[in-house]
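About this split. The held-out portion is used to measure sequence recovery: a designer receives only the structure tokens and must propose an amino acid at every position. Recovery is the fraction of positions where the proposal matches the reference. Here is one held-out target exactly as it appears in the evaluation file.
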């Protein structure tokens, strides 16, 4: 009697995959398939078919093992990736929030800049009206012998009052409160002074001093670079320089009018101080605004006679007043004064346009930057929410445990060959 060595199902697996088969054999899933394949003896003729059947089982188990591993590892990988992306997007959202915070401050500063600029622009209109009223009042005082007849000058006063009232009504919402109170005080002081202009004791020199002091007071109140203690990027420097130069130019024109129309002695030092100061201040202002310089030079080239008559009066004051009292010089000078006032007005408008475009660009740039940073922050927040949702779903899936593999496998369809292999007819046998 011969006895053949017992063989197991593991002997029929490929040699390089027996470690895999041994590992699977320890699990319930493999036992479900291989318990009926434990063979004690195998006929040589039956080895090949059984080896083929076991090969089908091996390939099926290998496929099932890979699919189960993928089902178990995919949620973990997804949770890890979404969590990593979530941390990255959170930092992006934090950075976007910081940028939005800074941009909000810049936009608020831009709004304050716009508000202060328009306030300065309106106050510049007030100073121009004061200068025009100064020259008109001095000319009126030297042209009439009866100061009680104030009908002609009253028209100029009404123009100034209407202009200030209109400014307060239309721009009260964008004005600084202290400036509005300053305008009220200004109107009160003008009203008191106008009541005393018709007095016999009043003279043009005191009128010039009053208006110059009033202009300096307005400049000190409204054209400080550190408005309300806030250091804003306001283009106040070129505008302040020009307005100061404009106020001094009006004082020079008023003193020149007194010089050519009367025998009253004027303070020559004051006259040249106003003339030199206005030229230097306006030239410094033009350094920041080339467009205003171009306009000023263009206007002077269009009226070359104005500059000639102004220089003639200056030379006459220096030489000893040989031309003083000449009617022709007085008429030419008064015409030149009118042209100078028109030049100042046009140049001021060009300066306003240049600075206004700068302020508008600043405001628009701040608004666009804020919109861009806000969009980044919103996208980052949405991405964080999505990453958290994906992570929570993956963790929830993992917390439910592995699926019932045996139940899943019992529902898997088997081929005819696999059914025959797994049937109970395959019993261990022993051959003699």
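Reference sequence for scoring:
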């Amino acid at each position: 009697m011969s006895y053949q060595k017992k063989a197991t199902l593991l002997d029929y697996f490929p040699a390089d995959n027996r470690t895999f088969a041994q590992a699977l054999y320890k699990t319930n899933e493999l036992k479900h398939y291989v318990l009926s394949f434990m063979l004690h003896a195998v006929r040589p003729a039956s080895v090949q078919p059984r080896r083929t059947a076991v090969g089908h089982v091996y390939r099926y188990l290998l496929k099932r093992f890979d699919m189960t591993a993928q089902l178990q590892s995919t949620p973990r990988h997804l949770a890890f990736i979404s969590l990593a992306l979530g941390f990255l997007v959170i930092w992006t959202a934090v950075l976007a929030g910081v940028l939005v915070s800074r941009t909000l401050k810049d936009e608020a500063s831009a709004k304050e800049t716009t508000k202060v600029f328009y306030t300065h622009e309106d106050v510049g209109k007030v100073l121009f009206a004061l200068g025009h009223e100064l020259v008109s009042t001095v000319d009126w005082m030297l042209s009439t012998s009866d100061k009680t007849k104030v009908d002609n000058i009253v028209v100029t006063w009404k123009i100034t009052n209407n202009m200030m009232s209109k400014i307060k009504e239309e721009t009260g919402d964008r004005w600084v409160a202290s400036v509005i109170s300053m305008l009220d005080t200004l109107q009160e002081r003008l009203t008191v002074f106008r009541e005393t202009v018709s007095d016999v004791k009043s003279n043009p020199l005191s009128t010039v001093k009053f208006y110059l002091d009033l202009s300096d007071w307005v400049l000190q109140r409204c054209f400080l670079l550190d408005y309300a203690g806030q250091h804003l990027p306001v283009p106040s420097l070129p505008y302040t320089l020009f307005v100061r130069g404009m106020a001094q130019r009006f004082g020079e024109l008023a003193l020149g009018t007194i010089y050519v129309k009367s025998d009253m002695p004027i303070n020559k030092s004051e006259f040249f101080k106003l003339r030199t100061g206005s030229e230097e201040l306006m030239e410094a202002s033009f350094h920041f605004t080339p467009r205003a310089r171009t306009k000023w030079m263009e206007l002077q080239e269009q009226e070359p006679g104005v500059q000639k008559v102004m220089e003639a009066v200056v030379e006459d004051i220096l030489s000893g007043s040989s031309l003083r009292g000449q009617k022709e010089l007085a008429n030419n000078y008064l015409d030149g004064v009118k042209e100078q006032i028109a030049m100042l007005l046009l140049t001021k408008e060009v300066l306003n346009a240049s600075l206004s475009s700068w302020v508008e660009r600043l405001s628009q740039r701040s608004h666009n930057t804020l919109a861009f940073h806000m969009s980044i922050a919103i996208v980052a927040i949405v991405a964080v929410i999505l990453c958290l949702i994906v992570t929570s779903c993956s963790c929830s899936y993992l917390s439910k445990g592995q699926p019932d593999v045996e139940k899943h496998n019992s529902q898997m369809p088997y081929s005819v060959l696999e059914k025959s292999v797994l049937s109970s007819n395959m019993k261990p046998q022993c051959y003699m």
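Annotator remark: The CA atoms of residues 100 and 374 lie 6 Å apart.
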